[in-house]
Predict the 3D structure of the following.
Amino acid sequence: MDSREHVPAMLEPFGRVLRKHPRVNEQLNRAMAPFENSAKVLLFSCNMCGQCLLHENGYTCPMNCPKQLRNGPCGGVRMNGHCEVRPEMECVWLKAERRSRYLPGRYLFVRLHAPLDWRRKGSSAILNAVAGFPGDVKANEKE
Ligand code: SF4
């Protein structure tokens, strides 16, 4: 998947500006990231990774997985559906699958994602999506 896939075509000129002018991107990020991230922290327990997958995972942040897995659960999910690292917590991925059943983007749940670019942690995921991630690896579709 390309990070710009969900960005409206009309924003592409803005994305070009962000890609061409890293300084502008940086300044806008500085202004926007605190608002975006604090809203998402409150609403979705966002961990500010800067490469949001909420819309593909039933609005469940995958970065709340103690192993920070972004492509589904590990092999250690307990029989009761809880996490092997934090037994008091339901597996993030079970929750994400359940929630995604009721949302229109259900088909997006099965996608594989490129590894996280840790340099973008703390930045605005919206601006990053509009700009596209340099060196973005096209992820494979499952199946
Ligand atoms: S996927 Fe990343 S940006 Fe989206 S809510 Fe989780 S930590 Fe925040």
